[in-house]
Amino acid sequence: MERSVTLVAVFAALTAVLGLIPPVTLGFGVPVTAQSLGVMLCGTVLGARRGALAMLLFLLLVALGLPLLSGGRGGLGVFVAPSAGFLIGFPVAAFVTGWIVERWRAAPLGLVAGIASVVGGIAALYAFGIAGLMLALGRSLPEAALLALAFLPGDLAKAGLAGALTAGLARARPGSLLSRPDVHAA
């Protein structure tokens, strides 16, 4: 129990640290950040429930005003900005990513973690992000989806990196993945 609580806090902090990498803000007000890599890693390393809890903790701290988002943003105002849908999707994305890693054991861990990051950390996250763009910017579904496509190349690279980092962690520290406590080799 204590280890789980500690790791949830550590991965919320990791997501905050990834926010220190300077963002690239797109013309429609949504920044491209490294923080979605943190969301993916929460799922691949911590698993579904703990990954979602880490992201809920992160969002609680942001809502309380801590400047943890890329660019030093925080407070309740970020939850009505064009990027709000993506933020709200963080816990769901981590959960979906972790759920896939926990259950799909027929393929190598790195591949599973990479694919899970695409399904959870991109597809599930984009569902929330696109809905947020539609509401905040008054765009249609096709228009908002087209805007979200600007993030796809970077997010695909982050998904590949999440798969590689997860497999590397499993090799370096067998048994350290809460998403797969029984893994002893990647």
From TrEMBL:
Pfam families: BioY (PF02632)
Membrane topology: Multi-pass membrane protein
Sample GO molecular function, one term: biotin transmembrane transporter activity
Subcellular location per the Swiss-Prot or TrEMBL entry: Cell membrane
InterPro entries tied to this protein: BioY
GO cellular component: plasma membrane
UniProt keyword list: Cell membrane, Membrane, Transmembrane, Transmembrane helix, Transport
Chief localization: membrane
Membrane-spanning segments: 51-69, 76-101, 107-137
Family classification: Belongs to the BioY family.
Name of the featured protein: Biotin transporter
Species this protein is from: Wenxinia marina DSM 24838
